[in-house]
Specification:
12 helices, single chain, 12 strands, Arc Repressor Mutant, subunit A, alpha/beta, nine-stranded mixed beta sheet, three-stranded antiparallel beta sheet, 39% helix, Rossmann fold
Length: 286
């Protein structure tokens, strides 16, 4: 993987990072970073994610991705990597902020996801550390600060009372950024941290629309920024759909692909707001 350096004299750094107190003067990255990534949402939570947490990710994060927002997280077990995999599956973007150098992906079990982020063209790996530098106990709170700094707001999905997500939440508050928290069961220790953040003033949310409203984001504006990866199957499908409507049968014939391959792609395009499916016809709405 080709590793580049984002320096303080670079345009993206000057525009989005130079005024942040405590920000490192250089960041290492591989993949691609877009201007819109700095409008993304940092999604964090428990490494011991429950089925409830997984359902919350599917419900809320899918809507964020569908609206064109980049998902920023730490590639950790549980909530982090699940949210990032979902973003990739839906054709969205994700930025993985590492607590080690880019050549020292941790945990190793998430190496394939890291590689997929880069090779898909759907995001980047970013680190404040030299490429071959290993993680330490101190590097993860620093990583959490960087996640908050790179994002527009933080969303917490499941966190115990002593969860490491507290570092990200604290950083976001200190940086003047909004913190959104999904509540959980009073009988689950994975909700104790979430409920504490809410008591301390974080925004309680149960759906993506509440996030959009709090940030004064119009989904139509976000959708206008969506770009399909050049040469991807999604782009190929999208280009074969007319504004006047296209039958599924005609679409599969023009693509020379079976419906079983085309249908999941149509679902993703509809979630992104690029098409509308009405009975037996598919419409290009952008």
């Amino acid at each position: 993987m080709q590793i580049r350096i984002l320096k303080k004299e670079d345009g993206l750094y000057r525009k989005h990072l130079q005024d942040i107190k405590g920000m490192t003067e250089r960041l290492y990255y591989t993949g691609n970073i877009l201007e819109s990534d700095f409008e993304g949402i940092c999604v964090v939570g428990s490494r011991r994610m429950s089925k409830y947490g997984e359902n919350c990710i599917e419900s809320i994060v899918s809507e964020l991705v569908g609206a064109g927002l980049t998902i920023i997280s730490g590639l950790a077990f549980g909530v982090d990597v699940t949210a990032q995999k979902l973003a990739l599956d839906l054709g969205g973007r994700t930025i993985a902020v590492l607590g080690s150098g880019i050549n020292k992906i941790r945990p190793l079990s998430n190496f394939d996801t890291a590689r997929r982020i880069v090779e898909s063209g759907q995001g980047a790996l970013i680190s404040a550390y030299e490429p071959d530098e290993d993680s330490t106990k101190a590097s993860f709170p620093e990583r959490d600060f960087l996640m908050a700094a790179l994002s527009r707001a933080v969303l917490v999905i499941e966190a115990s009372e002593k969860s490491g997500t507290s570092h990200t939440v604290k950083a976001a508050v200190n940086l003047g950024k909004e913190v959104f928290v999904v509540p959980g069961s009073i009988f689950s220790d994975l909700s104790a941290g979430c409920h504490k953040y809410i008591r301390d003033g974080a925004n309680l949310v149960t759906c993506a629309d509440e996030i959009f409203e709090a940030l004064r984001i119009k989904k139509s504006v976000l959708k206008s920024k969506i770009r399909l990866t050049e040469g991807s199957f999604e782009e190929k499908v999208y280009k074969n759909i007319s504004s006047g409507g296209t039958l599924l049968e005609d679409l599969t014939l023009s693509l020379n692909e079976p419906a079983v391959k085309v249908l999941p792609c149509l679902t993703i395009l509809e979630m992104k707001g690029l098409i509308k499916i009405d009975r037996d016809k598919i419409f290009n709405v952008k």
